[in-house]
Design brief:
133 residues; mainly beta; 5-stranded antiparallel β-sheet; 2 helices; 44% strand
């Protein structure tokens, strides 16, 4: 159940999408034991067709279960992209793949989510690490 946009709906008017996408559908392939996305991605998007492009704007929110790299405490990191924007060309050399009149947004969501994940998750910036016995 990837996040697909049917281009026929955009012939009449802009399209608004709200919902959740299971994290398994994002196929994040994380190999970091300290970061575990377990809850679904919440999205609220406005899609517009502008000439030979799709403009997708909106909010992406993904709560992520993490372990602090200093003290190993479990905490939740909130990946929030309140003004996410993506311009997808429908023509030209870099055009997106269109399958059955639909464009799959999932690879673009995945890429931006991976770029926003914390490199070294910390429960708080001033975390002093494990307590010495």
């Amino acid at each position: 159940m990837a996040l697909r946009i049917n281009l026929r709906y955009l012939e009449r008017d802009d399209l608004t999408l709200k919902g959740e996408l299971p994290v398994a559908e994002l196929d994040l392939d994380l190999r970091d034991e300290m970061i575990r996305p377990e809850k679904p991605l919440v999205y609220e998007l406005l899609i517009q067709k502008l000439d030979d492009n799709l403009l997708v704007r909106g909010r992406l929110f993904l709560p992520i279960a993490c372990e602090c790299v200093r003290c190993l405490k479990a905490f939740e990191y909130e990946l929030d992209l309140p003004e996410w924007t993506c311009l997808l060309p429908l023509a030209g050399e870099e055009k997106v793949t269109i399958t059955s009149d639909s464009v799959d947004l999932t690879p673009f969501l995945r890429e931006d989510i991976l770029l926003e994940l914390p490199q070294h998750p910390l429960c708080k910036p001033e975390c002093g690490g494990l307590k010495k016995p």
